[in-house]
Amino acid sequence: MTLEETMSVMFGKSLIVAVAIVLSTPHAVHAESPPCYLLQWGTLGYGDGEFWITRGVAVDASGNVYVADVNNERIQKFTSSGGYVTQWGSPGGGDGQFGGPHGVSVDASGNVYVAEYGNNRIQKFTSAGAYITQWGSPGAGNGQFNKPFGVAADASGSVYVADYENHRIQKFTGSGAYVTQWGSVGTGNGQFGHPSGVAVDASGNVYVADTENHRIQIFTSAGAYISQWGSYGSGNGQFNNPVGVVVDAGGVIYVADYSNYRIQKFTSPGVFFTKWGSQGTGDGQFEDPASVAVDASGNVYVSDGYNNRIQKFFGPCFVGVEVGASSALLDMAPAMPNPWSGNTTMRFSLAREGSASLAVYDPLGRQLKRWSWLRLAAGPHQVIWNGKTDDGRTVAPGVLLYRLETAGQVMRQRMVRLQ
Q1: How far is CA 404 from CA 91, 280, 302, 317, in A?
Q2: What is the bridge-based pairing of β-strands 398-406 and 309-314?
């Protein structure tokens, strides 16, 4: 079944993270691994926080998460940890109603844009779901659509729409006035085979998930072709129906590689960094990942379509090793359990007796807890931590960095504290 056929039908346990510890090089090294699985929310259903096939996902500046709940014909809003906030929408073609909500995007002012493939229009709402305006109708003319799947708002307020069956990108003002368009069916530069996803970087460049051409294309904000990467396959940097794309504030690119059941991450156009996911229902596995979003803290949210859930990641789990001339530190294992609530245990081993320190930091680098030893015996050691800071406060849920130092050698890891 093709992606288009699959979407037409739609419209009517553990991720193993490899930890590498390098001790032999005399210079600082950084080992990139897939991100840590943090949490998930959602299940099949009609109630608050339940889904009937998820598609678009977007995050606002405050960390709120918006999800296109396709067959329930609604948008649901959550906190960054999956707490239900509100919802809006019902089946129909009226203001604030939906016919196949698919793409979702949030602009700098917090306005929410929804691409409806069934009603062939874009609707605009406040962050609370109050209807503002809409534009579009069925057709191939300027400002018309034939199954708009993806939508993205840039920093200046312009809105870009992936017009799936018209094989083009259309650009509008934030109020829906038509600006320009580009694309036609084909495989050449600037042509498309059913574009599904669209994103904009901090410089205003437009990234398009050219789904059936199995590639990402990049354009200027006016539609001039810049470059592309990708080919059909399952290797690093290859795609099998990429449908979602997002670019974070640092220019890092994430692609929802739909039929490969994975997310791929690129440090710049075409420069592969890492990947994660496989087909399944376990943590970090996917059944048709359709969209991806990144918040200001680097958390990655994946719309796991037929698993009817959102999964949240942060990474890489393993941060890196700094090695000096001395090699007193023999080994450092990941915290267990991780993620955790209650207590977690940090284990390490020293090759020889010496002084050592272990400290935990928040993502901003602020020290939360520290242990120091003037003389620590060679061999294995462990520290059991209850999540309390040096002054007795309970650490908030989220990603934490911990750092072990001895005799000029430093090792760092990440862990995740749950609620």
Answers
A1: 55, 36, 32, 16
A2: unpaired
Q: What are phi and psi of 242, to 5 degrees?
A: -70, 125
Contacts of residue 27, defined as CB under 8 A and 6 or more positions apart, other chains included, come to 323
Which pLDDT tens digits describe the chain residue by residue (419 residues)? Answer: 444 444 433 333 222 222 222 222 222 333 356 787 889 999 999 999 999 999 999 999 999 999 999 999 999 999 999 999 999 999 999 999 999 999 999 999 999 999 999 999 999 999 999 999 999 999 999 999 999 999 999 999 999 999 999 999 999 999 999 999 999 999 999 999 999 999 999 999 999 999 999 999 999 999 999 999 999 999 999 999 999 999 998 899 999 999 999 999 998 898 998 999 999 999 999 999 999 999 988 889 999 999 999 999 886 665 555 444 344 456 788 899 988 899 999 999 888 888 999 999 987 678 899 999 988 998 999 999 999 999 999 998 888 889 888 877 778 888 888 87
- pTM score, two decimals? 0.76
DSSP state of 395: P
Strand ranges (DSSP E) for 100-158? 101-106, 112-116, 121-125, 131-135, 148-153
